[in-house]
Amino acid sequence: MKYLSALFFAIIVYSISLQAQVSVIPKPNELKYTEGNFNFSKGLDVKVIRGDDGTKRLQKQLTDFIKNKKINIVPFGATAISLNLAQTTELPADGYSMMITPNSVAITSSGNTGLFYGLQTLFQLMKSDSVKSIPCLEIKDIPAYAYRGMHLDVVHHFFGIDVIKQYLDAMAKLKLNQFHWQLADAKKWRLELKSDTTLTDKENYYTQEQIKDVVKYAQERFINIVPEVKFPVGTDSLYDIKKITDEVTALFSGNYFHAGNGFTDKATLQLLIAKNKKIIGTDNLVSDKTVLLSYKNSKNGISAAAKGKDVIMAPRQLCSFDYYQDWDDEKKSFDMTFLPLDKSYTFSPAGKIKDNKTLQHILGGEAYVSTEFIKNAETLEYQIFPRLVAFAECVWTNKSRKNFADFERRLKTQQNFFFKEKEMPKIDMVRIKPKK
Hints:
Elements: H1 2-21, E1 30-39, E2 45-50, H2 53-68, E3 80-85, E4 96-100, E5 104-109, H3 112-125, E6 133-141, E7 147-153, H4 161-173, E8 178-184, H5 208-219, E9 224-229, H6 241-251, E10 256-258, H7 266-274, E11 278-282, E12 291-294, H8 298-306, E13 311-313, H9 316-319, H10 341-344, H11 356-359, E14 362-367, H12 377-384, H13 387-396, H14 404-414
């Protein structure tokens, strides 16, 4: 009996030690430990089993990552990492499988998006510079929701291209795929217009070349830019709405276009629909063909989904990252509420919905970052992290697999992985606050 108790205890300790090594965020939806470790202390090979030009670019990203880790590339070596773009009905284009054995790591998907997400998982597993081995695993990972977004308002306060790219990098590592970029409202435009120079802000704005650069940068990270632009009213003779619409939509190749809150101009709406744009409205369904972003609360979104309308959930009580996250933080608006990390982790786009027809219309969720009270990049970073990391798990990982204590353990291991340029604020009880 004592022997069995000791054996049982040893198995538990071994299991805990294995899990301590695997600190992936978002948590994979299927993960199984197998025997042994993949040891790459003597170097490894990187190869493509099947693929296209996009797969070869991913191979280069993997090779660069390995070289930066001071790991030798050994062609035809005994250990190898392989990418396989395979035709399979088991994995959608944004899902992946990963098989780690003592001699190999094989990442498989039906699309390069899935292979890219598999690499983000592998990079976290290989994060340590000192440890040259990872446990053998079998992973099958398919996102819980198709739309996994982050909103950033640059109208109230402007942030340069370098800051935008830093957040796109963080989104890519977190497997987020929609960047809702609030560029213009009724009072201020942050993008260059050549057809009408009177709309663009005179001090801080993005040139069209900068916009194109960001769109390309996002595409390389499998992120779609969702521009939010509040157009002038179409009946206003001061503006040529068709020219403005043509010019703005030409900059953004994605399907989604956010038309702001309270968008009602039918003429501009028809112009956007004619360009095959899926129009998003915050708390407002402007037509049968638009998507609702449910921000004020979840009830509006649930009601719309039950009526067969597509919905993106972003209830401000759980997704508004301008809200204060520490009791000592200043409450800058009457509407603000307390949103600590553990509360933000409770977000679920589907909530308690059980009706399958309604669930089909919940596209996913979005983290919302208004910058009315955020005046610099340091404060922006403080407000977003680490809550964005928690949010990412809420929209990727199935609700049944989520556990805050486990998430917190993984976050402490990976907290500086998602924002490389600057050290992320510490997540312990005492947080580093930005200078005023």
